[in-house]
Design goal:
18 helices; alpha+beta; 6 strands; single chain
Length: 408
Amino acid sequence: MHASRPRHLVAELARSLEGRLEVLVAEMARSIYDNVEFYRAMAVGPEDLHESLRHNVGYLIEHLSDPGSTEVELDGPTATGRRRALQNAPLPDVLRSYRLSFRIFWEHLLGEAHRRGGSMPDALLGTASHIWELSDVYCSALTDSYRQTCAERMVETDRRRSALVSELIDGPSSDGDTAWEVARMLDFPFQGSFLVVTAQGVTAGEPPLPGLDPRLHALGVRSAWRAQPSSETGVLSCPPQRPVPQVLDAVRAVATGRVGVSPLYERLDQTSRALRYAQVAAQSLPPGTTAVRQLDDAPLTKLVMNNLETTQRAVHRILGGVLSLPEDDRTTLLATARAWLEASGSAAEAGRALYCHQNTVRYRMHRLEEFLRGPLDNPKIVAELSMAIDAVGTFPTLLEHPHVPRPA
């Protein structure tokens, strides 16, 4: 196709700007520094900005100087979008700098057209829509490049943070980072208030805690996560003044399955130990339920965690036939025993806690005594009962019948 006469005239105008490229670049840079906040903070140095403008304006002049050109070279805006994304420049500020630059470029073209006179101004106005379409094409290319770079950085950041969480959970490898270094890279304190959260997935490909990040952010809680096919594990850094129940409420609000939470701990190098508590807390919840459970850092909890099978056998020896009773009877006797122990053996106090008469408590305890290995006036029997009640209160799965291996 033959280019129109106005395009030929505009090509002459564009070529006249080639010798003024450095003047154009300097004027655009001054306008950007004066009007765009991010650049005004000198986050982008003059040399960097001048080079970017020179690159972009040079391509623009080259395109307009060829009246038959139909393709637009987008290497300039693509490179600028990527570079500014890597510099964490706000996209609106980058686009504003582009629009300011295009306005200055247009003003110089218009000024040259008026200086030459004749049909030049009309020719320029006749191709104005094409020139401003170039502005939109440049801005779109820049935006696409910027967003793609941000997406790549997000994936890289997530992958790196996941690896750092793995180092906290599994312990650093021989060539890995120390807990101090991991804390610095995660922007966590080494000493503070931490929780480990492990959530079991319900649906493949769906996050088990959707929408948790903005809730944590609102509480001032920072987090880093490791995603696995069937679960997601996170380390939460909580502000000292933030009560843990508020954090747990945020987790409950988005949970879609079983979620275990560790006790609060104070040093990042204790994360692997805390994870064990969170895992056991999640596993102690009934399968198929949606619930959040946190274990206390108590001596009995640690003892049971390290010896689940042994504890389960001990519970069944201590409680004996109680566990074989119908569920309603079993639940009533165990609840009464718990209240009686918490009341230091007072039937009256236990009755108030259970909203029943003290004689009812005494009757139930006498009935329970029939299933124990001795009378309740024996301190050893009371100690065994207390251990068993505390253990099943913390780990309800201990009520299940223990697996007894068959002899070979």
